[in-house]
Amino acid sequence: DHEIFIRTGGEVRFLRVSAVLQRRVAALVLIALGLWLAATIGMLIWQASSSYQQRDVAARAVAVERAEARVATEAERIAAQVRSLGARQDYLEGVIAADFGNDSPPPAPVPPQPATTPATTDRISALRAIGTRQTRLATAMTTAIEARSSRAEAALSAVGIRAGSTANQGGPFIAASRRAIAAPRDPAFQRLAQAVSRMELVEQLILSIPSSLPAEGMNLSSGFGYRHDPFTGAGAMHAGLDFKGAHASPIRAAAAGRIAFVGRQSGYGNTIEVDHGHGIMTRYAHMAGFTARVGQPVTPGQQIGLMGSTGRSTGTHLHFEVRVNGNAVNPRRFLEANPDVLEVQANVSQRVGSRISAR
Predict the structure, then answer these.
(1) Could you point out which of 41, 157, 185, 199 has its C-alpha 20 to 30 Å from the C-alpha of 74?
(2) Longest dimension (CA), the chain
(3) Against a cut of 0.70, is the pTM above it?
(4) Quick count: other Cβ atoms within 10 Å of Cβ 151?
(5) Do 91 and 183 meet the contact criterion of CB atoms below 8 Å apart?
(6) Please, which residues have CB within 8 angstroms of residue 293's CB and are 6 or more apart in sequence?
(7) Residue 308 DSSP label
(8) 335, 254 Cβ separation under 8 angstroms
(9) For 140-178, how does the pLDDT look when each residue is reduced to its tens digit (9 = 90+)?
């Protein structure tokens, strides 16, 4: 027990605190402290648990974002591969349909899709396998096209014409109307595009060879080269061939082209000139009349005029010239072309006709 004395205004009092009361107060204080401590510890534990959960959720969110990023990257890779394969396939089909005809090897078939969806890596491997097959097809087509171009170039060499290179080119850009599909940047497809360009150049040149007879038969009255002038008897250069025939008999275009001139020229009389492209031009002189107009496209064997004897002429005949880059060449080497030239020309004409019909 404890006794506490208190003096107030001369009076003395005392307060007695028993041991039981002290123990009760101490017990209450201890209980309060215990409750406070328990609450504090519980709060700390709850805060630690919440922080751990938040870190776990954040870590899981980061992992999910990374996984989604990887999935998106793989999806983009697959989409890019599909776009690339689609562009390559479009180009191959365009070349086959428009340029190569029935001579080309068949396109590589796309394998059927499996019933179950494979893993991403499996899909990428399958797409790469298709790309490899397309590359092999492009290589095979390039080889076949180059072989066909070589045959056409040999036919041109037989008549003394050499196909120019496709390296030295220029001019303003005009979008292609026939096939606007550009070759992919893959080296095999770039080589294929170059081979196709070369083939088209050579085949267009083949079609420009004036190999069709401009008049009925080969009734020549004067050849190409030096001769005695029929009017003066002096030596002169004859720049073409003279074909005899009946008055007003048909004169025909020797090759496909476009009428560049219709009218009268000094010495030639009534004259028609046909531009066949690639620097090749044919001239038909001493005509009695015209059946074609300037700018008109003509096909081989199409009538363009009538045989006559206008200008510096001694009788009814056709004076026929072939000029390459402005220089007169002997037309006989074109009109008497070997069978290989005529066969290649016929094949090219057939393919071009089929291509035009397909449009």
Answers:
(1) 185
(2) 177
(3) no
(4) 16
(5) yes
(6) 259, 262
(7) B
(8) yes
(9) 888 888 888 888 787 777 777 776 544 444 434 334 444
Q: Say which amino acid occupies 201.
A: L
Residue 334 corresponds to which tokens in the numbers above? Answer: 């074109």
The amino acid occupying position 314 is: T
| Local structure of 289: helix, strand or coil | strand
Q: Which residues of 71-101 are buried (b: 16+ CB within 10 A; e: fewer)?
A: eeeeeeeeeebeebbebbbebbebbbebbbb
Q: Does position 203 have pLDDT exceeding 90, yes or no?
A: no
Between β-strands 317-324 and 241-244, what pairing exists: parallel, antiparallel or unpaired? antiparallel
pLDDT in tens, 40-98: 998 888 888 888 888 888 888 888 888 888 888 887 887 787 777 777 777 777 767 66
What is the sign of the dihedral through the CA atoms of 160, 165, 171 and 172? positive
Whole-Å CA distances, 359 to 179, 256, 303, 319, 355? 11, 19, 26, 38, 7
Q: Is the dihedral of CA 250, 254, 256, 257 positive or negative?
A: negative
For the stretch 141-144, contacts whose Cβ atoms lie closer than 8 Å and that sit 24 or more positions apart, written own/partner, are: 141/92, 141/95, 141/96, 141/100, 141/104, 141/105, 141/192, 141/195, 142/188, 142/191, 142/192, 142/195, 144/100, 144/103, 144/104, 144/105
Mark out the alpha helices in the chain (DSSP H runs): 19-95, 120-158, 187-207, 332-335, 339-358
Pick from 296, 290, 204: which is nearest to 259 by CA? 296
CA 243 – CA 37 distance, rounded (Å): 128
What is the per-residue pLDDT across 233-290, written as a single tens digit (0 to 9) for each? 787 888 899 999 899 999 999 988 999 999 999 889 999 999 998 888 999 999 999 9
Task: Please state, for a pLDDT cut of 70, what percent of the chain lies above it.
Answer: 81
Q: Residues near 312 by Cβ (< 8 Å), separated by ≥ 6?
A: 231, 267, 268, 269
Using the predicted structure, report yes or no on whether residue 221 has a pLDDT greater than 90: no
Q: Copy the structure tokens of residue 221.
A: 């009255």
The 8 Å CB, 24+ separation contacts for 290-297 are 290/262, 292/259, 292/262, 293/259, 293/262, 294/259, 294/260, 294/261, 294/262, 295/258, 295/259, 296/258, 296/259, 297/256, 297/257, 297/258, 297/259
Q: State what percent of residues in the chain have pLDDT above 90.
A: 22
